[in-house]
Amino acid sequence: MNVDGTPFRTIWRSDDGWSVEIIDQTKLPHAFETLRLCDVGDAARAIREMEVRGAPLIGATAAYGVALAMREDASDTHLQTCYETLLATRPTAVNLRWALDNMRAYLLPIAAPDREAAAYARAVEINDEDVEINRGIGKHGVEIIRALSEAKGGGRVNILTHCNAGWLATVDRGTATSPIYEAHDRGMDVHVWVDETRPRNQGASLTAWELGRHGVPHTVIVDNAGGHLMQHGQVDVCITGTDRTTGTGDVCNKIGTYLKALAAHDNGVPFYVALPSPTIDWTLSDGVAEIPIEQRDGVEVSEMTGRTNGGNIETVRIVPDGSPVANYAFDVTPRRLVTGLITERGVAPASADGLAALFPERVLKKGSA
Amino acid sequence: MNVDGTPFRTIWRSDDGWSVEIIDQTKLPHAFETLRLCDVGDAARAIREMEVRGAPLIGATAAYGVALAMREDASDTHLQTCYETLLATRPTAVNLRWALDNMRAYLLPIAAPDREAAAYARAVEINDEDVEINRGIGKHGVEIIRALSEAKGGGRVNILTHCNAGWLATVDRGTATSPIYEAHDRGMDVHVWVDETRPRNQGASLTAWELGRHGVPHTVIVDNAGGHLMQHGQVDVCITGTDRTTGTGDVCNKIGTYLKALAAHDNGVPFYVALPSPTIDWTLSDGVAEIPIEQRDGVEVSEMTGRTNGGNIETVRIVPDGSPVANYAFDVTPRRLVTGLITERGVAPASADGLAALFPERVLKKGSA
Asked: What is the CATH number for A221?
């Protein structure tokens, strides 16, 4: 997407043809800085220190990390070493493992002297595939926005989103944001209510930043505000992302998504979830019962980081000393509250049948799970 | 309630018999400091600068402010001047106006030389009446907690609350917290999930602080987390306060209350609202349609104040420069989502009939609104 008029991906090959550049997301939203990754150590640090984050972008960065490693030493031993180095950066990230498995399987049969070129080529493909999936989500999702706009006689469509399922979490365009960027770029009048998304504030710090840089009208609100807005007709549609989707259409996404889905249902506001199909876990059927919810460090709740008046980045404590804190990272929104799932192949009802109709080749045969 | 073992109200007469002391709530939760109010100017500053806050406590402070004014000059002119000075501090606070009207009407017929003593006596009454109302709420509300505990075979009762309808918002005991303190003081095993309550964080900074000082087990969570907890049986009951209640049982409370009521309803968790009966507005019947929602300064959303590692109080910006912000202060929870209203006279169903049965003398006659 654009940063004040100039197109950027979140990761790209430098003009030198071999090093890799990224946007340093630890500096957002207060500074826009890029970093150059010159070896696999740089790539590992970028993932570990969350200079890049978001499942698709982590995978894309790991793929380039393998290419950087092959440039140094294309031996089988080094291929295995870089695989392990990169995997250890965020061991629970499914996309990270997928990208590394894919790169290793692709490169192992290739003779060492040809591996560097092959690794760059495959990394570029993995990056481009992510963008294509997101373009597909945008192409199908924009029709929802168009229909809402037409129902309002061409008026502004107000979209509520939660967390950052945006350009910054992917290589380009994002998932939940892809239909929004598509609508905006086609000249439709859209406005986004951006949930700040406590405790890590990815909405306020990342989604608001990227929408602002691309020029999409938006307003930041606290997570508490969406219900009131829906009661008063100020939200036409909700679109969120998902970290994990059951084969039956339950959605596990950033904590608080469920509360917005309840408010949407109570007020007749359509609630859509955008997802690349690889996030569907076909082995799961009951999200609330089956998906374990990660508990993260309480300092994310008890402390807040921002920019002081003097321009410094500072962390402040906001909870009394001695008060315990709990920090659940995700919640599950049952499919009965989800209007539809926006995938790269089209919009599916949030149900086993709905997903199976779009992805018939992926449905698990009975007994195979 | 107790502060680490020593009983405190939020406002009290000093040992000198005439000056008034308060807890400086602007220092919470990072420091416990008291302030001495020696004249009406001190009282006005305390209200204006939010050294005291919460509707009942503001009224109680204003009453003492009039007493301090009468000590200086008990003339009709000064009575009117101090009325206007105090009213101007928070012009939209209903309790402030009520307390000032009450004090003025009480004092005007009294001869000037007797006004100082009369003013202190009436201020003490207004303070004690608040405590008595809250004790009544506690006495009736504790039966709800007792029944839930018995249904669990005497096990721990987990209570979720939002914002600060606590001791610190009143003279003592609080409204939503009164049944909780009552249960705790009677030896029942209670634990409170404290919503941080963005944007002003009254839950994390005030409710967690007062529960901690009194020794009530509690855990601070982000506002996004309550739905997940309810899905997993970790909340037995919700109890919140209310700023304004319609005669039909709709509840206008801090933004985000509605989302918790939806989650409670979706998971079969009882949702109670505690209120002193003066907050019932008998002229209103449809809260969502009729109650205007205040929009406050966006800096409450875009900035956050806390304590740095070095011990300083610092404010940091958490929203990108240039991103607009909206800040709705309250939302309305429709009566269909409210299990019951805990008042000083008992627990009423959230309905016109339910409230009328408890407060028959206050119901407006048809055509009188």
From this structure: 3.40.50.10470
Torsion of CA A256, B55, B239, B205, to 10 degrees: 50
Computed from CA positions of residues A92, A96, A100, A101, in that sequence, does the dihedral angle turn out positive or negative? positive
Specify whether the CB–CB gap between A78 and A138 falls below 8 A: no
pLDDT tens for each residue of A87-144:
999 877 778 999 999 999 999 999 999 999 999 999 999 999 999 999 999 999 999 9
Query: Which H or E run includes A122?
Result: helix A112-151
Q: Do A209 and B320 touch (CB under 8 A)?
A: yes
Residue at a domain's end among B75, B106, B129:
B129
Q: Which of A130, A223, A243, A281 is catalytic?
A: A243
- A-to-B residue pairs, Cβ atoms closer than 8 angstroms: 236
How do residues A282-294 score in pLDDT, each as one tens digit?
999 999 999 999 8
Residues of B in contact with A320 (CB under 8 A): 28-30, 204-205, 208-209, 212
Domain assignment of residue A278, yes or no: yes
- Examine the domain organization and report whether A107 and A165 are in the same domain: no
Residue B207 and residue B67 in one domain? no
CA separation for the pair B284, B49 (Å, rounded): 31
Chain A: closest CA distance from residue B103 (Å): 37
How buried is B232 (Cβ within 10 angstroms: 0-12 exposed, 13-18 middle, 19+ buried)? middle
- Cβ atoms of residues A176 and A239 within 8 Å: yes
Contact A30, A254 (CB under 8 A): no
Domain co-membership, B41 together with B180: no
Residues B166 and B211 in one domain: yes
Q: Do A263 and B262 lie within an 8 Å CB cutoff?
A: yes
Distance from CA of B182 to the nearest CA of A (A): 20
CA dist A68 to A17, A115, A147, B12, B206, Å?
A: 11, 11, 46, 70, 52
* Chain A interface test: which of B323, B335, B336 (most A C-beta within 10 Å): B323
Question: What's the CA gap between A23 and A2, in Å, rounded?
Answer: 13
* Domain termination site, one of A112, A129, A146: A129
Whether residue A369 is contained in a domain is answered as no
Q: Find the CB nearest B263 among A225, A262, A328.
A: A262
Residue of A nearest to B215 (CA): A323
What pLDDT digit, counting tens, does each position of B72-112 carry?
Answer: 999 999 999 999 999 999 877 778 999 999 999 999 999 99
Active site residue A223: no
Q: Do A259 and B263 touch (CB under 8 A)?
A: yes
- Between chains, do B198 and A198 touch, taking CB under 8 Å as contact? yes
Per-residue pLDDT tens over the stretch B104-125? 999 999 999 999 999 999 999 9
Residues A109, A207: one domain? no
User: Given this model, what pLDDT does residue B368 score?
Assistant: 52
Closest Cα in chain A, distance from residue B64 (Å): 30
Residue A263 in contact with residue A238, Cβ under 8 Å? no
Contact B225 A326 (CB under 8 A): yes
- Per the CB < 8 A criterion, the answer to whether B237 and B148 are in contact is yes
Provide, as residue numbers in chain A, all residues whose Cβ is less than 8 Å from the Cβ of B316. 304-308, 314, 316
In angstroms, the CA A135 to CA A196 distance is: 25
What would the two tokens of residue B273 be? 């609202």
Distance CA B24, CA B53 (A): 10
Contact: B225, A328; criterion CB under 8 Å: yes
Do A112 and A239 lie in one domain? The reply is: no
Residue A237 pLDDT > 80, yes or no? yes
